[in-house]
Every structure is written in C-alpha cells, then in structure tokens.
C-alpha cells in the first residue's frame, strides 16, 4: 500500500494545474491516469481543426502563460504542446495506465482508501491519501463516493 498526501485522478488540464499548484507549495502528490498519455481527450478524440472556444487569456493554466505570439483561439496542436510543456516545466510525472476502481473514506483514520488497477502490470494497487482530487474530466463515468454530509 502506498501512502500519499494528495492523490490526483486525471492528467487533463485540471489535474495538471492541481499538480503544478501543489508543487509550488512543495506539497507531495501522486497523479494517476487511466490512459497512456496526458490530455487523452485532446490527443485521441478531438478533431484536428478543433480550437479552444474561449480566448487564450481565459484558458491558461496557473503559473504559465501562452506565448505572446499565440493566436487568440488556440488550436488543438498548440494546446496539446502547451500541456506537454506544462508537464515538463513543473516536472509532473504521472502514473499512466492506472485506473481507479474504488475510493472510500475512513472516518476513523480521516483518509481515503483507493483501489486502482495498474493496467501495465495487470495488478491491483492500493493507495491511502489524506486528500483526493478527482480531475477525471466531464466525459468520465461518474462515481460519487458515499460520504455523509456531501
């Protein structure tokens, strides 16, 4: 069982931004992703001519602006490159091919217990974490944990 302070589920823009912000405060985290790459929706499921529908100023991730010469509406290829550059700049090291199967909160220990499937090794891995960030994207199947008061 691996014990981490923060577990981030998802390596899209929200998960990457969370990881970068935690890094800025030297808060340890682990970031996992069920796909084999970051921003898989943008890389594998978006059409090539797609552009962000908001101006770049509204789509920047924390602590890193777009280049000054970037177009107002960022095309898919530049957005994916921006995300790759973001991963490199903040030294984000995702654990790919790791699918979270369940999460339960332990009231006594005040921590989350996570069971995940490491698809690369075909094994089950377990994590405990004080904080769980679900950044798996709006297209993921929802799985809302049963937490009293939530």
TrEMBL record:
<comment type="similarity">
    <text>Belongs to the FMO family.</text>
</comment>
<dbReference type="InterPro" id="IPR050982">
    <property type="entry name" value="Auxin_biosynth/cation_transpt"/>
</dbReference>
<protein>
    <recommendedName>
        <fullName>indole-3-pyruvate monooxygenase</fullName>
        <ecNumber>1.14.13.168</ecNumber>
    </recommendedName>
</protein>
<dbReference type="GO" id="GO:0103075">
    <property type="term" value="F:indole-3-pyruvate monooxygenase activity"/>
</dbReference>
<keyword id="KW-0560">Oxidoreductase</keyword>
<dbReference type="InterPro" id="IPR036188">
    <property type="entry name" value="FAD/NAD-bd_sf"/>
</dbReference>
<dbReference type="GO" id="GO:0050660">
    <property type="term" value="F:flavin adenine dinucleotide binding"/>
</dbReference>
């Amino acid at each position: 069982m691996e014990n981490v302070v923060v577990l981030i589920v998802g390596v899209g823009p929200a998960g990457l931004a969370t990881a970068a912000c935690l890094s800025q405060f030297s808060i340890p985290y682990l970031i996992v992703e069920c796909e084999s790459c970051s921003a898989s929706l943008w890389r594998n499921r978006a059409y090539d001519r797609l552009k962000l529908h908001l101006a770049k100023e509204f789509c920047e991730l924390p602590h890193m602006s777009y280049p000054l010469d970037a177009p107002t509406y960022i095309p898919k290829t530049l957005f994916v490159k921006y995300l790759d550059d973001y991963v490199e700049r903040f030294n984000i090291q995702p654990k790919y091919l790791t699918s979270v199967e369940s999460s339960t909160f332990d009231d006594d220990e005040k921590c989350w217990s996570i069971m995940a499937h490491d698809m690369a090794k075909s094994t089950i891995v377990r994590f405990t974490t004080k904080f769980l960030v679900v950044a798996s994207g709006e297209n993921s199947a929802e799985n809302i944990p049963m937490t009293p008061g939530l």
